[in-house]
Input
Amino acid sequence: MLNGGKTNRARSDKLSYGGKGINVSVILAELNVKSTALGFAAGFTGAELERILKEKGINCGFVHLDSGNTRINVKIISDKEYEINASGPTVSDGDLAFLFNRLDEISDYDWLVISGSVPGGMNNGIYAKILERLKYRKIKTVVDAQGDLLLNTLKYKPFLVKPNVFELSELFDAKITTEEEIEFYAKKLQAFGAKNVLVSRGKNGAVLICESGEIIKTKSAEGVQINSVGSGDSMVAGFIAEYLKFSDFSRALKFGTACGAATAFSEGLADKRKINEVFASFNE
Ligand SMILES: Nc1ncnc2c1ncn2[C@@H]1O[C@H](COP(=O)(O)OP(=O)(O)OP(=O)(O)O)[C@@H](O)[C@H]1O
Ligand SMILES: [Mg+2]
Output
């Protein structure tokens, strides 16, 4: 139990990296798919993050900010789970311009995954602006974001969007639980422009509405959940890795689902061994 007004001492502690895009890169690395992490890095925490990513064989294309530190978020597991997320360093218009220049270095036929939220105060049209800049390029884009940040991107026809069922409900201010409701609202996202819509449902599996109109559903792999963070990111990475190999939606969905489960069944993100184990059992 946390005591206000007193020093609280932790029984154990752990420092780990995070961030949705980072998670996608880390799982891609486990799957032997090369990626470059883009975004902003600042100070000693930013340098440490880059060191860890490079050690994993992930390229880093961060824009380095002049001041501040890449934020440290604190999670306290006590009587309840407490979460304190720092606000993070300030990103100037100049820094943002540097990031946009990095986008021009992406090659045709590469994939770009845009994932997570943006620093407070930043415009919720920013992801749309990224896609606007790339609209005449042959780049496959994936958006995993919430609310207007996601909705604003749809007119640029992202290849894939991956809301979870709560995010889908929030987008339409509706209570969405059944498969029929999921399909109904996922199709609305398609009508707004998304090519393929993958709705993840935690331990209830996932539904993929393909550009062709085909609907593919999958159950989740069976296992004991010990982690609730990063399953969606793992699913995105697994989906991309498998789609790159076979250009097959059904296979990509199945492998993505296994990767999501593998992370749910791991402390932190899944490693290669866990992914293979879950995929093998899932395939039986
Ligand atoms: N407890 C679980 N058991 C089995 N599979 C799971 C479990 N949790 C997640 N998964 C798998 O991972 C996929 C993605 O999970 P989820 O829907 O929780 O994503 P998310 O909410 O976007 O996660 P995050 O944003 O934290 O990465 C699910 O569709 C499912 O296939
Ligand atoms: Mg998610």
In short: The chain has a mean pLDDT of 96. The longest strand covers residues 111-115. The first helix runs from residue 20 to 30. Residues 164, 200-203, 205-206, 220-221, 223, 225, 229-233, 235, 257, 260-261, 264 surround adenosine-5'-triphosphate (ligand 1) (CB under 6 Å).
